Amino acid sequence: MALANDRKIWTWFEGEWHEGNLPILGSADHATWLGTLVFDGARAFEGVAPDLEPHCARITASAEAMGMRAPMTTEEILKLAKEGIAKFDDDAELYIRPMIWSTRGEGSTMVDPDPDSSAFALCLEEAPMAEPVGIRITTTKFIRPSLESATVNAKAACLYPNSARMLKEASDKGFGNAIVCDALGNVAETATANIFMVKNGEYYTPIPNGTFLAGITRKRVIQLLSDAGETVHEGILKIEDFRNADEIFITGNYPKVMPVIAFDEQEYEYGEKGQLARKLYWDFSHGRI
Ligand code: PMP
Asked: Which CATH number does the domain housing residue 86 bear?
């Protein structure tokens, strides 16, 4: 979903809040030409911001995985995020994005970021929550890299051109997202979110193997379902398993829990198990669980 050009944006940078799409990168910054930028994404909606703390914690871990020292603590980022949310209407639908990047390389090659050169900004922007109308997915010829070939242990901006080409391929075929495998041919996730399937009343999702982002929403949904007495299996899943599924849905901070209503020519209901996962997430978000 494209974001509105006139959306309200607030950015915290170098100790101050600025309204709008603030320029934050220098033309000679390391991140600008060498891609050393990590980010995280949380949501605020209906007056709540579920799992804001783990999203603020994950960006500091991502920075370290990219060879940078996080210039802010989790607590400091969380405090700023709450300050930023308060700049909008109480029920505003927001994308909350802390970012850390390197301004300077280290040593003679300069490709290695200087761990002490990291900068921080926090951007909050209006971004409507999608209704659970469902998405249509297909396969992709692209795969998730492994740790040997990419910084998959960080939520890093440089990983997203790979997702973008998957989405382009899917969109050229008339679909909204793609189910993505790792180098071994096991299902990893979609281009932008984690994936679950339901078979015979039980939930299944790929087991984290270091190739994909085992998301905060995924973890929350597994916990909520398990606490509600549902059976959730984390295991090795193949494309064929998803073709034989009774239901499929995705999880991620942006859509939260979204049903898959088609996988290639196969169509699916927004079934009761997917609805339960979404309902539990909303109950949790509003403190009802
Ligand atoms: N995988 C990818 C590639 C993502 O971009 C996201 C969204 N951050 C996720 C999974 C879901 O992670 P989370 O629930 O932590 O947002």
From this structure: 3.30.470.10
